[in-house]
Structure prediction request, 399 residues.
Amino acid sequence: MFMNFRRIHKCQCVQLLTTGLVLCVVMVCWEELDHHMVSHMRSYTYRYLVNSYDFLNSSFAISTNYHHGNGGSNNVDGGLVNYPYLINHPGKCGGGGEDGESWDDVLLLLFVKSSPENFDRRQAIRDTWGNVSFVLSELRASVRLVFALGVHPDVGQKSRVQSQLLQEDRAYGDLIQLNFLDTFHNLTTKLILQFHWGHKYCPQARFLMSADDDIFVHMPNLVKYLRQLLSRQTGAKDLWVGHVHRGAPPIRRKESKYHVPYDLYPWPSYPDYTAGAGYVVSRDVAAKIYHATLLLNSSMYIDDVFMGICAKAMGVSPQEHVYFSGEGKAPYHPCIYDHMITSHGHATDVRSLWRAATDPTVSSSSKGFMGNLYCTAVKVMLLCFPYYQSTYPCMAAFI
Ligand SMILES: *[C@@H]1O[C@H](CO)[C@@H](O)[C@H](O)[C@H]1NC(C)=O
Ligand SMILES: *[C@@H]1O[C@H](CO)[C@@H](O)[C@H](O)[C@H]1NC(C)=O
Ligand SMILES: *[C@@H]1O[C@H](CO)[C@@H](O)[C@H](O)[C@H]1NC(C)=O
Ligand SMILES: *[C@@H]1O[C@H](CO)[C@@H](O)[C@H](O)[C@H]1NC(C)=O
Prediction:
């Protein structure tokens, strides 16, 4: 009786396993199944069971017999050959690239992806987390802030916006503008601009950060984190850190902004990448990505994904940091401010958040045993229950 029971049990297990395996295989292979749920399961299965993205190297390699100059964004030099700088600051990091002139010692080159018409967002950033004189005087860290832009896509508004940009740049000297249309489908060109500019004009910066113009960066926490990385024995090498997407499926729905057709990317899942809202790479990784952009076809217009493709081709993997946000806004609370690095979706409240988050009383709220206990409890409340909108994973409550 007992033996029989065990036998049945074993049989069922084997059956279950086989069914699971068959299902997995079906999901990976059956391209026609394109329900949201199914495409996620298929892509996770691919990511976690197959996890081989070897096709990326060869599929995205630039064909050698290709002649550029046809105005597309898919040419050699990662799409930048045809686009001259309209506004540039070659001396931003010292040196100017000439022999004999020394480069400034720069901890962080901060690239903010902006659009020509977003004057207010840029101003809010300069006045708050992007205030490099504040970072220098209060944190003793050398940071360079630049905004990456194309030109306004609307012909009617282009010349007015352009003259405003020139005026803005005369006042602040922090715009880097290339002559391409600033549209969603040209975001990869903007990504390439950042790595090419960094390579040419600021190669000595220890870290490069790429950020959207509607995020909040807690500069004091970020600088502290970067310094900790530098003081490690291994140094800050091979680092690409942010909010990591693993096994994300390409979106095939035509209505979606992120729609990617099969002929551009036929595989069921993207290589791992960090959310483009804000991530940091170390100097060596920035150099590798630069080289990848010279070798790979940049027709993948989702810039975060293109970054993932470049990194994969160079053998770089992204690392998760629980206080880098992906989409959502961080909860407004001093216990969160004490740890947060980035938070997304702050087009209008950057100034008030900056004041609140850098208030000297913030760090005292979590001081001592009781403070620590209190903040852990608050963070569990804010991050671990699904009825609160959460940016950071529940795990972040225990750090
Ligand atoms: C890049 O890929 C696109 C689409 O897959 C293709 O049309 C284009 O010719 C490729 N460009 C190069 C330089 O290989
Ligand atoms: C930037 O920081 C400096 C130094 O802390 C401060 O004097 C200055 O007022 C700040 N600028 C803005 C626009 O807030
Ligand atoms: C990207 O910019 C180029 C150069 O201005 C332009 O020709 C092209 O149409 C733009 N592409 C998209 C998808 O907007
Ligand atoms: C090809 O891709 C692998 C990772 O999949 C990477 O380790 C390797 O360096 C790449 N080779 C080239 C030539 O890019």
In short: Residues 322 and 393 are 6 Å apart (CA to CA). Residues 65-78 have pLDDT under 50 and may be disordered. The chain has three domains: 1-51, 85-92+103-320, 334-398.
